[in-house]
Specification:
The protein is mostly helical and 371 residues long. The chain is built from twelve helices and five strands. The protein starts with 37 loop residues before the first strand and ends in an 8-residue tail after the last helix.
């Protein structure tokens, strides 16, 4: 038998050559759908054990992606320079994803002095040392100002379309999700298990930003609610777009913030000294810089989420989470071909509405003294 008559034996196609005769599967058949929303116990058990040791949820978190996931290119160079950092692990193995993570990592590093100056300011307040409080507030404002040129560096190596279409789906949570309404099933070694739901990693899980808000007395409530000056009840300290946001932080950081929430005294001290113009100016300057940073953050959200989302809607393409089986199958059901109609952040909130509220609440924290 000639080679021409025996092509099938060698899995060669007359029409596609060495390519398969049929296009590769994009998704596994429906039969396998239940397994696409399950973590086998060989993964879920060690993952849960490590998460328990770290005191974080057994899911992707801001800490896992940004605090513990970088490598210095040159140990002798600064950790605050994104160009000197690279992410150790990414979902997509793209330079865009690595850059997205390490820009935020660099900002976390830049924020280290803010923590120390705020804590020293707490002590200065307890000693009624207004000059020292003003000094530390001036330093905090200077470091907040340093954030402003770093945030736009995101544009250098992270393409908005790549982020929205390739990276962002991997950062989505499995809580209040159209594609994963039941969450993810974590198997145990006995054949059973539990469905669990988690929000995706988000800047709201950053201990740094919550610390800054707590230190300066900026109060937030869930999106859609406005905090009043005399209202001392806050659902969660700091930025709290997602229920239990503190629970996604490393345990020691969470306990630190809870302690800070009890001891923060800067705003009350400034308000108790309305005639100290230098102290008031230093405090308001911190808030002005924080407002600038949050305005920059809004610009980034617009460019990386809102604009690509509008383009996707115009193309009428469905947005499907890559870890989910085909729409309409298994316990996590979705109508075939149904496109996502509302844009949510990776933590599950509406990003623009939430961040605008955060910025506006920061604006309302400014102290004005009538003369």
């Amino acid at each position: 038998m000639s080679l021409l008559d025996n092509l099938n034996r060698y899995e060669i196609s007359e029409s596609t050559g060495f390519l398969p005769a049929e296009s590769p599967l994009h998704r596994l058949p429906t039969y396998y759908a239940p397994w696409e929303t399950r973590l086998p116990y060989t993964i879920s058990i060690p993952l849960s054990s490590v998460a328990l040791r770290l005191d974080i949820p057994p899911y992707s978190t801001f800490a896992g992606q940004n605090l513990w996931n970088y490598r210095l290119i040159s140990p002798s160079e600064s950790i605050t320079d994104p160009s000197n950092l690279v992410a150790q692990l990414t979902f997509t193995d793209t330079p865009d994803e690595s850059w997205f993570f390490i820009v935020l990592t660099a900002i976390e590093a830049q924020g280290a002095p803010i923590i120390m100056h705020a804590l020293h300011a707490f002590e200065a307040v307890s000693q009624d040392d207004a000059v020292a409080v003003e000094k530390h507030l001036t330093e905090i404002a200077a470091h907040l100002r340093d954030f402003i040129p770093v945030l736009p560096r995101m544009y250098e190596q992270c393409n908005p379309d790549t982020f929205f279409n390739c990276i962002r789906p991997f950062l989505s949570g499995c809580k209040a999700s159209c594609e994963l309404p039941s969450g993810i099933f974590y198997e145990n070694e006995h054949g059973g298990g539990t469905w669990q739901q988690f929000s995706g990693p988000t800047a709201a899980q950053s201990s740094l930003w919550q610390f800054i808000d707590l230190a300066l007395g900026v109060k937030h409530k869930s999106t859609g609610n406005v905090v009043n000056e005399e209202d001392d009840v806050v659902e969660h300290p700091g930025v709290s777009s997602n229920e239990g946001c503190l629970d996604y932080m490393p345990g020691p950081h969470r306990r630190f913030l809870q302690r800070v929430a009890q001891e923060a005294n800067i705003r009350a001290y400034v308000m108790a000294h309305p005639n100290n113009e230098d102290l008031l100016a230093a405090y308001n300057n911190c808030l002005d810089r924080l407002i600038e940073v949050r305005s920059k953050h809004l610009q980034i959200i617009s460019r990386y989420i809102m604009v690509p989302s509008r383009c996707a809607k115009q193309k009428s393409l469905p947005t499907v989470n890559p870890i989910v089986g085909r729409p309409g199958s298994g316990p996590n059901k979705r109508m075939e071909g149904q496109a996502t109609t509302a844009v949510a952040g990776t933590g599950g909130s509406s990003p623009m509405a939430f961040l605008k509220q955060v910025r506006d609440e920061t604006q309302r924290t400014l102290i004005y003294v009538e003369k």
